[in-house]
Amino acid sequence: MEEKLKPIEINKEDTISGIFDRCHEIFKNTIATKDRPTFGNREIYVPITWIENKAEIFWHSASIEQKLRLDIKPCNNDITAAHCEENCVTGIDSIILSNGDVREKCIYRAVRIGWISEVINMYNAGDLRVRYWEKVNSKKRKRLYLQYLEDEINYLVIFEEKSQKRVRLITAYPVFFISAKKDYEKDYQNYIKTVSK
User: Fold this and answer.
1) Smallest Cα–Cα separation from 191: which of 160, 127, 146, 139?
2) Which of 41, 105, 135, 141 is the most buried (most CB within 10 A)?
3) Measured distance CA(44)–CA(159) in Å, rounded
4) How many CA atoms lie within 13 A of 146 on its CB side?
């Protein structure tokens, strides 16, 4: 079995902006490149719109939506907490996406950005740590999910089906809210029931 995925290493002398810059470089070199993996036999389309000199889809994966009440910080019990200024709580360093959504930059999510291509490759290789399901969202669009589960890790990569030959990368992130874990588990079990009929 392959090794467990590890986040991008950060050092105590790294600056927050330096961490985001390094993570964005990894994003560009692993998934926002012409040499990116395929999703099975489908091409992966990665939309590139720039916000603050970085791809918007990077920012979506490296930020967290504003919550009125955040019960636990994502970086709790993680090395990224040493660099975190509790931005998900204080909201002092936000990013505004092209649709107007305001999100808080998150180092915890950013240092896992390299996992996107790794999870896709694991799925393509039939790695049992990655599971797949489909679900039609409220806008009647078919979403395809890859979930990497190993020990304490729960990481989700989401695509939208464009055709039989192409999918669009929507986002990717670590799942840490208990309610979200339960929702994704329910979605997966519902999908398994429908395909096993």
Assistant:
1) 146
2) 105
3) 9
4) 27
Q: Compute CA distances 85 → 14, 88, 93, 106, 197, whole Å.
A: 14, 8, 9, 10, 49
Please state, in angstroms and rounded to a whole number, the distance separating the CA atoms of residues 53 and 98: 14
Percent of the chain's residues with pLDDT above 70: 87
Report which residue type is found at 17: S
- Checking if the pLDDT of 165 tops 90, the result is yes
Order of all β-strands in the sheet with 166-174: 43-45, 166-174, 153-161, 142-150, 130-136
Report CA-CA distances (Å) from 12 to 83, 110, 172.
7, 16, 26
Residue 108 to residue 177: CA distance in whole angstroms: 14
What is the C-alpha separation between 81 and 72, in angstroms, rounded?
12
Q: Note the pLDDT of residue 90.
A: 61
Contact 49/95 with Cβ under 8 angstroms? no
Query: Would you say the pTM of this structure is higher than 0.85?
Result: yes
- Rounded mean pLDDT of 83-92? 64
Q: Which of 174, 170, 145, 193 is nearest to 6 (CA)?
A: 174
When mean pLDDT is compared across 86-90, 140-144, 170-174, 188-192, the lowest value belongs to: 86-90
